[in-house]
Amino acid sequence: MSKLVEEFKKEHSLIVDALSKSRKIGVDSREGQAEILTAKDFILAHLKKEDEKLYPILRKAAESSQRLKELLSEFDKDLSETTSFTLKFFNDYTAIKGSKLAMKLETLITIFERRILREETFLFAEFEKLHK
Predict the structure, then answer these.
(1) Number of domains observed in the structure of the chain
(2) Reduced to 3 DSSP states, what percent helix, strand and coil does the chain have, rounded to the nearest 5?
């Protein structure tokens, strides 16, 4: 496994761990809210790194692979939806309280877990093929 893929997997764990810790501590607590901010920082840094180091290589390879081009198109659509929900969550989380906030956090965790599983299963496999 390439060093970059290992870094991405570690970052995925940090994101989910911070969100899960917020859930465990209590999303309405000061500590829980601090974990949400930590997760936000991890997410932003991770997305920037993917945009700089993962996607350009995959997009270049997709120029000669229709299958990869279609896969990236699916991921782009999914990322758009994920980004929309995530931005709304981080913009609104301080104004939402109690069970509604807990439900939104659960949805966010589910979205990220699904996205991470798909990235690690499909995108990272494609990236690894390019680096053999």
Answers:
(1) 1
(2) 90, 0, 10
